[in-house]
Automatic annotation (TrEMBL):
The chain crosses the membrane at residues 21-43. It comes from Clostridium pasteurianum DSM 525 = ATCC 6013. Keywords: Membrane, Transmembrane, Transmembrane helix. It comes from the Bacteria. It holds the Pfam family NAGPA. InterPro entries: NAGPA. This is Exopolysaccharide biosynthesis protein. Residues 156-340 form the Phosphodiester glycosidase domain.
Length: 342
């Protein structure tokens, strides 16, 4: 091989070696920065950042394990104020006054759709004029596997639906058999007058719940199975926090961070408000509980409650999923939905 060819070959190898070194250094910088950032977030002095990040992880049923890698359950509860929020709700004497709801539009098939825009989020609001059309549906494989919101809606001949109550992720208890399948609802699940599920097994235990009575009036707050039955509630699911009661914005002590959100509310004329806000995306980072409460009040809610959010957040309308669920595979399997009869 000539000297010129050897020189060119040497230069090529030298360039390749420098490129490998640069790429390796860049990879090291990315890994080092990521690890450092994680430790700063979870163990650093920035309390508000820590609350926001932990709240966002705990909102997601699938990614709670990330927060639990770094923090104990006691630390997580302290940061999210979950126990304190439940205690304050149980101590609250404010109850929904259903007498102030006057259902004015029975047998009205009209549904209004609006875009809801905030500084950091985009969402959708459906207004259902006849609240008696609004019901709770659930997966046909309860206890084993959930179904997509759109599938449960279609099986119930629904024109619209949002995802409903929360569910337990079996991996958190060491059993990964049904991880992420949405088959096991948390709290109360009632549909068309029947108690479908009550995982506490206690008929008098109060939990944050939304219920719809025989007249289409929405109840939100701390209720037990006994409370719901005595109030003639036919459909119910458990979640929270409560956002508005009797037109009054409720204090939110629970830290939830910024995340995709789902919520339900009711106006004085009986119209039901169904809200979803996309999150964990470039065009829509997500919303806080306060953002959701503000949106509900702006649309006239006198009673409202937050439902399961995170990657479960889904809105189905007129044959399509109209929001952008943030789960990598699209719609997530859930145990329950709130749907609108066609």
């Amino acid at each position: 091989m000539s000297d010129s060819k050897l020189e060119k070959e040497g230069k090529r190898k030298n360039k390749f070696s420098k490129l490998k070194y640069s790429m390796g250094f860049l990879l090291f910088e990315i890994i080092f920065t990521s690890i450092t950032l994680v430790f700063i977030v979870f163990y650093g002095p920035f309390l508000n950042i820590k609350k926001t990040v932990v709240g966002a992880f705990m909102t997601s049923g699938r990614h709670q394990y990330v927060a639990k890698w770094f923090l104990s359950d006691a630390d997580i509860n302290k940061l999210t104020n979950t126990d304190l929020a439940h205690q304050k709700l149980s101590e609250s004497t404010e109850k929904v006054n259903v007498d102030q709801i006057n259902v004015e539009h029975k047998n009205d098939s009209d549904i209004e759709r609006y875009d809801v825009d905030g500084k950091k989020f985009k969402g959708y609001m459906l207004i259902i004029h006849d609240p008696t059309r609004v019901k709770v549906g659930y997966t046909k494989n309860l206890g084993k596997e959930g179904q997509c919101t759109s599938v449960i809606a279609q099986e119930n001949n629904a024109i619209a639906a949002i995802n409903g109550g929360g569910f337990s992720d079996e991996s958190s208890s060491g059993n990964s058999k049904y991880t992420g399948t949405g088959g096991n609802p948390i709290g109360i699940l009632m549909s068309k007058g029947r108690v479908i599920s009550n995982n506490s097994g206690n008929l008098s235990q109060k939990v944050p719940t939304m219920g719809i009575d025989v007249d289409g009036k929405l109840l939100v707050g701390n209720y037990s199975i006994e409370d719901l039955k005595s109030s003639n509630v036919t459909d119910a699911i458990s979640f929270g926090p409560v956002l508005v009661i009797n037109g009054k914005p409720q204090p939110i002590t629970e830290e939830g961070g910024i995340a995709p959100r789902t919520a339900i509310g009711q106006r004085k004329d009986g119209a039901i408000l169904l809200l979803v806000i996309d999150g964990r995306q470039l065009k829509s980072a997500g919303a806080t509980y306060e953002d959701v409460r503000t949106a509900m009040l702006q649309y006239g809610a006198v009673n409202a409650i937050n439902l399961d959010g995170g990657s479960s957040t889904t809105m189905y309308y007129n044959g399509d999923v109209i929001n952008n669920p943030c789960d990598a595979v699209g719609e997530r399997y859930v145990p329950s939905v709130v749907y609108v009869e066609n």
